[in-house]
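Think of the structure tokens as a kind of shorthand, similar to the way a musician reads notation: each symbol stands for something richer, in this case the local conformation of the backbone. In the example below we present two proteins back to back. Begin with the first one, reading the sequence and then the tokens, and try to describe in your own words what changes along the chain.
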Amino acid sequence: MKSKIIYEDDNILVTDKPAGIDVLSLIKLLSKKHPNLKNVGKAPRYGIVHRLDKDTSGILLVAKNNKSLIFFQNQFKQRRVEKRYTALIIGILKYNRGEIRTLIGRNPKNRKKQKVFLKGEPGSKEKREAISEYKVIERFSAQGGPAKGGKDYTLVEVKTKTGRKHQIRCHFSYLGYPLAGDKKYKLKNQPCPEGLNRQFLHASYMKIKLPDGKDKEFISELPEDLKKVMEKLKV
């Protein structure tokens, strides 16, 4: 499985990660062409600056030296990186824009999942703040009305102000609008668009400062599998 390189300089590789490959496997593939990556950071993550879920596609940053790894990771920690995702959720969102602000932490009943906590509720102590802003791109409504028979979907752009594990997936499931195709955070009897074999989530945009002080923007178009799903919804 190949990963397209969006941008490269002496400090960073920006790759367009395909769905179905985890970041550790991806770094192994990249290190075959760029063996010096194994000198960056610690095994097995090496130069990986941030994370993407296995079945999430899109922009992933890989540092090419230790100095730049620290430089880029600090920007993520300080919330200075602008990240946008494209997601298809189940149901019709009422408002064109919104913010989801909660605490997120490991689900005590399922250690492989995250859970939304509200301040003051049992188990919320020391959980970390998670902020997601969204805007509606397009609505796909059966018979043009509110959700009927689970055939309605909303395409959204999500800007994450924080970088919690499974943040977008967990947030929208908490609202009652899980991501289409998401098996981990799905609701009971959740429908799935024809041809969708993974969660509909794509890291489509990133803006970050390079070591030379200049801001750089990266864009990734929807991959073919998600484009085909969209085409069928529009028909």
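Once you have a description of the first chain, move to the second and do the same.
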Amino acid sequence: MASEGRYNPALIAGILAIVVGGLVLLDHMGFLHVGNIWRFWPLILIIFGVNGLLQREGCRSGRVFGSGMMAIWGGVLLLANFGVIGWGQMWPIALIGIGLLLVWESFRPKAARMTLTSGSLQPDAVFSSIEKTITDQDFKQGSASAIFGSVELDFIQANMAGDTAVLELNAVFGSIEVRVPISWNVSIEAGAVFGSCENRTRAPLPTSGPVKNLIIRGGCVFGSVEVKN
């Protein structure tokens, strides 16, 4: 499932093992005091972010921002922990990083967009807001990104021809709200860094008809994703 942008647990575990082993080795050799190891905690954000970027190569616009921002904030916090930059310099550097991500995205090859009637959805809000009502009766997959903006998706009138659909949501300094039918069972597999991914839906009732499963993937960095019915 790496092509869908999911994190690679083996890669993350391997890199973490190398980093921890290296830090302990430096401590034993006298180059680093064990009490200073806590300063390296932003490396976790960098590792998750870089891994996410590697898994998302060739994906549509807006889907690399969550991982990119995670890596940038990890780098900024790491520099601040070691006194290379001051805390007052963090926000300007983060804004520069966001700008670089936007420029990078503008030059990356874009995948061909599928129409809504094909069962796919791809709204991206960058410094803007989007409200969309989906009436597709054969919804299969989709993605939405909110970068310093907001996205509202209403699936109340939508349906799935199959039993399962996947929706990837990425919010970076933005918010995404999704409304789904009462007969949909929602499962969230998204991650959050200084943000929240909340499932506020009620479990489908036996009288609500055939149960459909909606899987939410993606992540939040200083943003929020909320799903309700």
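Compare your description with these statements about the second chain. Residues 119 and 139 are 4 Å apart (CA to CA).
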